[in-house]
What we know:
Distance between the termini: 23 Å
Largest sheet: 5 strands, antiparallel
CATH topology of the largest domain: Trigger factor, domain 2
Structural class: alpha+beta
Number of strands: 11
CATH class of the largest domain: Mainly Alpha
Radius of gyration: 33 Å
Number of domains: 3
Order of helices and strands: EEHHEEEHEEEEEHHHHHHHEHH
CATH superfamily of the largest domain: Trigger factor, C-terminal domain
Amino acid sequence: MQVKETKSEGLSREFSISLPASEIEEKISHRLKEISKTAQLPGFRPGKVPVSMLRKRYGPSVMGEILEKAVGDTSQQALAEKDIRPAMQPEIEITSFEDGKDLEYTIKVECLPEIKPVDFSKISVERLVPSSDEKELQNALQNIADSNKTSAPLKKKRKSKSGDVVMIDFVGSVEGEEFPGGKADGYELELGSNSFIPGFEDQLIGKDAEEKVDVTVNFPEEYGAAELAGKEAVFKVTVNEIKETTAAEIDDELAKKLGLESLEKLKETITEEQGRELKNMSRTRTKRFLLDALTDYCDFEVPKKLTESEFDSIWAQYEEQKKSVEANGEDEDLSEDEQRAEFQEIAVRRVSLGLLLSEIGRLNNIQVSQDDVTRAIMQQAQQHQGQEQAVMEFYKKNPEAMQQITAPLYEEKVVDFIIELANVTDKKVTVEEMMKVFETDNEEAEKKSKKPKKKAAAKKANNKDDKPAAKKKAPAKKKAEKKD
């Protein structure tokens, strides 16, 4: 094998590789001999078919198989000899091959950049440690009690008030014409729940049972049904009955309704759940500041194709979300060129951080265990009850889907590793203080951006700005394509 470097610019490399015809012929002959052991052709006993006949019969397919394997093996060997770690799948193109002549092909590849080791002790981040909060616990209990409240007919006649449940019949019309979905009989509506069009429930407060009311409201401009959006509607409503609601008592009986044996156990469950949520919030903040600090170490060249791939992913998500924004009649604040420029910055940041975290993991031999992967897949499977086995099989048979599972796990392990070595300052806070910190962080981030407020589509496409792009591993082989 002869290897000649034809280009070396930045991270881009190109090579011209030549394999002797004798080597290709040797591989083809060896493969045909293997086939001859089991081949069956009319007039010959199994295993006794001459190689010359097999060459006529199977020659083209064997040659394709040998070429693909030869190109795959030798390209890997060539890159290894040149100490090149591909950022993505190399581009391979056969430039010359005829039966009996040398095989020549080219490799175009982008290398992973050289990344300097990071001194983690110089990275300083603050970690919020929220304390248990009795007020939050009582609020959660009250919310549960409210969601389990009961309603019963009034014992004493009175007018309706906020919090009551009224049983109503109604017919809605726009410009004197009834519209689809604007009619119902025996509908139970909780006044003050804001489940109907703004202003509807307010006009039913202070009414008597069996009273008839004309309710006039305006549909919101962004209402889902375009033919009703922004229009005035009149609903002829009959209040059939008024029911008084009563919140559930916060006691053992409420806990048993939720499948727990006692109120004490319910409190423990709520506290644990709140603790997990607060811990996740704190970790998210710590990780965000850690990644911000790590960007100072991303002073290396980024592979162009990795960035292009990440940008394409962000832009595709943005285009999809943009459709729903346009459907609601909203306009984007940024022009397409401005949006592309912003997303390009995000793509570079994600790829840079992804490469840095990947290199940190490689140098420190950080691994994702099979148990970690299995647990993550099981969590996915549990979201599809009755199809758990099918979900498990899907991930086993799809390397790309498996990569989507393992990449975040790997990233979290690397982040944990860095946090252990970084200069982390714990700060104890109440839940209220923690929420204020998050609010302040968001305000400062908005000021730093110095950009117009983004619309929904851009926000959703950009909602993982702090998530590094997982490094895409270069597959071991690529099918060789013969040049015409």
